Each structure stands twice: as C-alpha cells, then as structure tokens.
Amino acid sequence: xxxxxxxxxxxxxxxxxxxxxxxxxxxxxxxxxxxxxxxxxxxxxxxxxxxxxxxxxxxxxxxxxxxxxxxxxxxxxxxxxxxxxxxxxxxxxxxxxxxxxxxxxxxxxxxxxxxxxxxxxxxxxxxxxxxxxxxxxxxxxxxxxxxxxxxxxxxxxxxxxxxxxxxxxxxxxxxxxxxxxxxxxxxxxxxxxxxxxxxxxxxxxxxxxxxxxxxxxxxxxxxxxxxxxxxxxxxxxxxxxxxxxxxxxxxxxxxxxxxxxxxxxxxxxxxxxxxxxxxxxxxxxxxxxxxxxxxxxxxxxxxxxxxxxxxxxxxxxxxxxxxxxxxxxxxxxxxxxxxxxxxxxxxxxxxxxxxxxxxxxxxx
Amino acid sequence: xxxxxxxxxxxxxxxxxxxxxxxxxxxxxxxxxxxxxxxxxxxxxxxxxxxxxxxxxxxxxxxxxxxxxxxxxxxxxxxxxxxxxxxxxxxxxxxxxxxxxxxxxxxxxxxxxxxxxxxxxxxxxxxxxxxxxxxxxxxxxxxxxxxxxxxxxxxxxxxxxxxxxxxxxxxxxxxxxxxxxxxxxxxxxxxxxxxxxxxxxxxxxxxxxxxxxxxxxxxxxxxxxxxxxxxxxxxxxxxxxxxxxxxxxxxxxxxxxxxxxxxxxxxxxxxxxxxxxxxxxxxxxxxxxxxxxxxxxxxxxxxxxxxxxxxxxxxxxxxxxxxxxxxxxxxxxxxxxxxxxxxxxxxxxxxxxxxxxxxxxxxx
Lengths: 364, 364
Ligand SMILES: CC(C)[C@H](C(=O)O)[C@@H](O)C(=O)O
Ligand SMILES: CC(C)[C@H](C(=O)O)[C@@H](O)C(=O)O
Prior knowledge:
The structure is a homodimer. By secondary structure, chain A is α/β, with parallel strands linked by helices. The first copy, chain A, has 2 domains: 1-108 and 262-364, Isopropylmalate Dehydrogenase; 145-258, Rossmann fold, CATH 3.40.50. Chain A is 40% helix and 24% strand. Chain A is built from 12 helices and 14 strands. In chain A, the strands form 3 sheets. In chain A, strands 2-1-3-12-11-4-5-10-8-9 form a 10-stranded mixed β-sheet, with helices on both faces. A two-stranded antiparallel sheet of chain A has the order 6-7. In chain A, α1 packs across α10 and α10 runs antiparallel to α11 (319-334). The longest helix of chain A has 19 residues, at 15-33. Chain A is globular, with a radius of gyration of 20 Å. The complex binds 3-isopropylmalic acid (2 copies). One 3-isopropylmalic acid (IPM) sits between chains B (76, 90, 93, 249) and A (194-195, 225).
C-alpha cells in the first residue's frame, strides 16, 4: 500500500516560513515516528500569479483533487491589491474550496492556559474557552449567481447572491451534530431568519436534521448579530456553532480574536469521503499571510503545525498522533518559548519561527 | 409656527416601559424646558399584529412619513416566532426604515466611565471608547430582489440578494465623512472586496467620494472579518466605521457589547431632508425587546432616553439640549443609581425603570 499523500501549498507572505516548520514535523514522522507521507509542493495565490499569471493553475487544482490532504499556508498581500477580481490571490483559495467541495470548515477557538493573558478580554471570560465553529464553505454569498458589477440606468450596481439549497444546509448541519457528539453535545445554529428567507430555510433544515437524526444533541438557534454579542459577552456558553459562509467568516474571526493568540489557531476544511474513505480535505491556519512581517523569522508556526495535527486526526485517523503534536506544542509553550507575536510576559524566551519549529520537533 | 411633531411607537416587550420614561422627559421639556412637541402614539411590531393583523398599518406608515421624528422602542418576541415571514414584528420596523428611506443608521458605541467594569474586555482596552458605526439601512441583503424560498429540481433553495447601487453607497459615505469631520476625522470603510463584487464597488465609490469631496478626512478600507477582529483586539483604533446593512448589523452589535452596557446605547436612523429642512428620522435603542424581563420594571430606559437626546441633536438642532440630557444621565449614574442590568458593583443603589426615569428628569 502506498503512503498517504500530501500537497503542500505554502502560498504568500509568511506562508512559506510557517510551512517550513510543518515540513520538519512531517520529516520527523517519516524518520522516527513511523508515518511516511508522499509530499509534493506547489504554488497558490500571489506566488502562483507571479509565476503563471493565475492564482491557481489547472495542474495544481488537479493535484489537489488527487491527494489525501492539502496543507495550505496563506494567500494575499498588498502587491496584488490592484489585480482584477478574477486574478486576486483569494480566488486560488476559493477555487480549491469550491472544486474540492470542502463544505465543512472547522474552526476551533481555544484559549491556551499559558496564553490567556494575551486576550483583550478578562481572563475569567476566556480562560478554558474551547468552542468550534463549523462554517459552510462552498455556497452562500461567496459563490451565488448572479454576481458582478452591472450597468443599470445611468449608474452601476454591485450584486452578490446568498443562495442555499436544502442539501447544502443538511450536510453541514450533520457535520456539526457529529462533531458535537464528540464534544459538549450542543449546537448553536446561526442565521438571520428574522430578515432573510435563506435564514428561514437554514433554520428549518437544521431543526429537521436534528429532530430526525440527532435528537440527543442540544440545539438552539440564534441570530447572527446576537451571536456576535454573545461571543463577546460570554463565549463559554458555546460548544459547536454552525453557520453559513459569510456569517462564519466574520464570527470565526471574532471568536479567534477572543483567544488573543491568532497565531495558535488551526482550521480544517472537509468534504465528502473519497474512494479510499478519507474525506477530501484542506488544512490551513486561521491567520492570514501577514505581509508586514514576512521573511523576518517572526511568524508563529504553531497555527500551521496544529493544522497538520488536525490532518492527522481528520484525514488519517491518527488521533493519538494528533494528541502527541498538540502535547508537544503545549510542552514548548509551558517551557516559556514564544515567537514575536506572544512576547510581553515575564520569564519568556523569544525565539524565531524556525527555533519554535525545532523545539516542537524536539518535544515530539 | 406649529410645534415640532413626534410619533412614538413603543412596540413590544420592554418597549412601552422604556418609552414611558422618555415621555416624562418630553413632558418636562413642554412644562419647564421651553420646548413643546406635538406627540402622537401608535403601534408597531407584535402589538400592531395583535390588534390589526399586520406589524405596521398603512395609517401608521403615513403618520411616520408626516412627523418630524419617530421614536421607536423595540419589536419582537417569542410569541410571534411562528408567524409567516411577512407578518413578523421585524417587518414593521423594516418597512419604516425602507419607506422613510432612512439610509444612514448611526450607532455610537461609547463606554461610560462609571460602567467600564461591566465590559467583558479589559478596562484599558475599552475605557474611553467612543466610536460611531454608520450602517447603510435601506439596501443590501435586507431588501435586495430576488428573495424567497423557491422549488428547484426536487428540493428548495433559499435566496437573498446583496445589491448596492453607486448612489446608495455614495450617500451613506457622505454621511460618514460629514460625521467624521465633527469627531476624530477618520473613516474606516468595511466590506469584503476580496470576495464580493458588491464590496469592490463599495470600496471604489467610498474612495471616490473621499478623494473628490473629503480629502481632509483620513480614510482606510478594511475587510469585515478583520474588522470584527480589530473591534475585539483594539476598538479604540476606530473613529467612524461605515459599512453595509448586514455587516453593520453584526459589527454594531459586536461593538455595542464591547461597552458592556447595552442598556445605554442609542441609535439614529436618518434619511434625506424634508421640506422643512429636517431629515427624515427615527430614533431607537440598540437593545431589543427583551421579552424575558418585560413588564417587571427591570429594564434600563437610558438607551431610549439617549435616543431622544440624539433626536434633539439631529432632528431639532438642539445640540445644547442634547448635551443637557446626556449630562443628566451621567449625573444620575455618578450618583450610583443603577437598573437591574447594571448591578454588581459596590455602593450602587438598585432602582426600577421608572425611578431611573424620574431621577433623570430631576437631574435636568
Ligand atoms: C482570504 C479570504 C478569501 C478568506 C475568506 O473570506 O473566506 C479568509 O478570510 C478566511 O476566512 O479563510
Ligand atoms: C430587529 C432586526 C430586524 C434588526 C436588524 O436586523 O436590523 C435589529 O437587529 C437591528 O439591528 O436593528
């Protein structure tokens, strides 16, 4: 049997630096951990545009469809701000999500004990926070048609379309309920059913999936504006939040910032099972490409390393190994090592991106 | 010359209780403050549905079009959850906004010194916070067509449309720049131009309005997800935020909760000038109808009272009187009076909704 395959797409900005540290961990597994991967690497985003004139080539797209999991760094940067909409770095990322049909985007917001003081929130509000946002990732405003800028009378109009079918809602709701059963057994479904018909359908389908197949899971419904408030007021009331693509984009960033340490947060984007039983999958940090600090060895590689841990858990059924990587990260943090984003406490030792990666490998 | 006219729409839940306290202040102005208003009162939301079978009658709508300003309490409640979409309490509110063409919704998020400790954020992050969100209120996802739930193949699809014309963006951008000139002279325009074409047009038009007519105001552009993060991380970086209807709904609630005292936050919704030079206007608290505490004398009337202060400022050009009402509120807070939502500190005196209103009238 051949090794499981990984496609690494470091992308732009700090993407390549943080991904280099993941490569060390993959190498460690190959050499000592008894888990070998077939790894290939390619371009996405601005770096693909620079070389090929498009943010994702058809060849790279085809490769992504074939591998067992994609690991992505980050895309985007001011250099590409003036590019036409269809050529922007983000289009590469969105094409991967759409064509791989990665409908369930799992975004944990977890507050690490050693780092709780970095939050702008009071410690007791966030200490021990551990919530999971399941964001629908392949439909809604991001992809609905019609879309574009059109002439109308003597002016232009910008149009995008929010669009959800019953089956699109159904499948992501199931992902959320399945996850909740392995966690706190509670799902909060978020929409604006008081204002949007797509929200009315969302609420109805989530309720139906619940009643038919997950009656044991606690379900409640919340409007998106109230959810933003509740995240700020008392985030520990949540276990799993399931919501659409656009609300999920905003609420997951809000939730991520509650923890105060964005450089620590991974994500997984999962689709339907492939022939080998593994889900289509892409893993990436929640943070962006941070062009302002790119190439300076300041970036925190932990979010990307924890994304690889999620790959071990969700793509390769290696829960124990995922735990091992997560434990190594905690050990290193407990020992006081910090990248530049997490300085400021007493008694911590500033390290570079690559020193952090080395320390985590050593802790494995 | 006749007195300026006010239409009071108390609405549902705690709406009537908090509005009763505003009435005391209006009466005080009539008796002692030398400012007489012609006041009429009517129903909106669930209370209108209960009596007339619709959340806003055509007669009430016509009255709202004629008066100088509308004061609204709040709408909604679980009792109406199962009503058809077109009959929900919210439709009454949305009809007022749309038919009065109240395109600029001003939502200040201000942290009161006496109450900074109610925030879930660290005091130094929010103390002195004073930002203003200008939310577009008559277009976008809230009103775009097509909308609804449709049959498609063998399933249903929920559709809403994000839609902005150049002139809709232009006019709300002007409101934001005008306001910024009277405040910190800085505008942050928020969209998702990296994902949505409507955001591309938004950004372009805001920039053009800036360059042509407000080059003296500092302008920057931010993605909505990043804005949610930045609000949590460092909200004092903002002065005026201008954004669309849906992003504004979520971000303004997030910003409101940063202050920790939702019961304190007013809003103004303004349209074009009428024949008498006053803008079409509606004033309402940011908080909702809080059905769980309705009728118990627990609600905080200050948000609604401060909404009336905004009416004095924006509709009646009585800036000094608005300052007077705001000062009265601060005096009462400084003296230690608190409604039930703000208990918990040492040395405060719990008071009912109506005692709070009386104290503010006394402080005038
Ligand atoms: C880069 C951008 C297209 C993307 C999104 O909006 O989905 C990002 O913000 C995210 O949340 O992954
Ligand atoms: C009640 C509801 C329709 C309304 C909205 O979504 O605009 C409310 O949340 C608000 O922000 O004023």
